[in-house]
Amino acid sequence: MRGPGLPRRSEWTRAASAGQLALLDQPAAQPDWQVRESRRARRLTVRVFPGGRVEIVVPLGTRSRIVEQFVSRHRDWIDRKVDEFRHAIPESPDALPESITLFAVGRQYEVRYELEDGAPRALEDGSLLRVHGDLSRGPLVRHALQRWLLHSAHQHLVPWLDGVAARHGLQFARAQVRRQRTRWGSCSRSGTISINACLMFQPPDVVRYLFVHELAHTVHLDHSRRFWRLVEKLEPGWHALDRELARGWRNVPSWAIA
Q1: Which of 109, 132, 69, 120 is nearest to 201 (CA)?
Q2: C-alpha dist (Å) from residue 227 to 37, 110, 171, 212, 214
Q3: pLDDT tens across 13-25, in order?
Q4: In angstroms, rounded to a whole number, what is the distance separating the alpha carbons of residues 193 and 177?
């Protein structure tokens, strides 16, 4: 049986970006599905992005039948993630916020746009977020908001992570805040914990669970039974929090991930 709109390899066509393959099989084509060949890929992987776009990353020369079998095996998981992420960007990507609520830390800002010369910048002034500069270029304005979000997340989330680690007697090498599109957090073999700045839009107990999850990886890097037993010990209500985190992209405004 053919996969969900997956073409035969002869029907793959390259998109504008190098290595990007669009799925153009008609009439079953799904414009939100793409296959991307990667020189660095050693195995097949699937990524689901906010908004519901699906990307299958494959090593160079992978046969279409292998891709179809891979998708068939993981179709239930993909469908669940697409459903979760489909409404992650409800408003237009070009929309700029009039107010911003950072649920994680209980802060709300009115956003005021002030036209001036120079590159856009976002500065906090109490409960007011002033975005000033040349406002004629929307992408640069969004970038200014994203820089502010990263700075704010670093200010609040890293000390919070430190506190959770100390409370449970766990240690990590260092923390970094990023603006990932598909992961809420990660822990490397060297003990570096990466935190998604978009956690600032999540409820505090969900953020705490994510911290516990990544800190547990400093003890067990995999998702073995021992790992989940440790998570259960540190965060007994983790099942419900994990489900809420999986739906968390619905809380993230489009400007933060565009």
Answers
A1: 109
A2: 33, 42, 16, 11, 10
A3: 333 333 333 332 3
A4: 9
Our CA dihedral for 235, 204, 179, 149, rounded to 10 degrees, sits at -160
Secondary structure element (H or E) that encloses residue 14, with its range: strand 13-14
Tell me: domain 99-257, CATH 3.40.710.10, correct? no
Terminal CA-CA length for the chain:
36
**Full DSSP string of 79-130:** HHHHHHHTTS--S-TT---SEEEEGGGTEEEEEEEEE-SSS-EEEEETTEEE
This prediction has a pTM of 0.69
Per-residue pLDDT of 145-175, as tens digits, reads 999 999 999 999 999 999 999 999 999 999 9
Q: What is the DSSP letter of 169?
A: T
Domain coordinates of the chain in residue numbers?
9-85, 99-257
Contact of 122 with 144, CB cutoff 8 Å: yes
Retrieve residue 41's tokens: 């890929």
- DSSP helix/strand/coil, 195: strand
- Per residue in 48-57, pLDDT (tens digit) is 776 777 888 8
With contact defined as beta carbons under 8 Å apart, do 56 and 70 qualify?
Answer: yes
pLDDT confidence of residue 15: 34
Q: Any idea of the CA torsion for 25, 26, 32, 33, to the nearest 10 degrees?
A: -20
Residues in the chain: 258
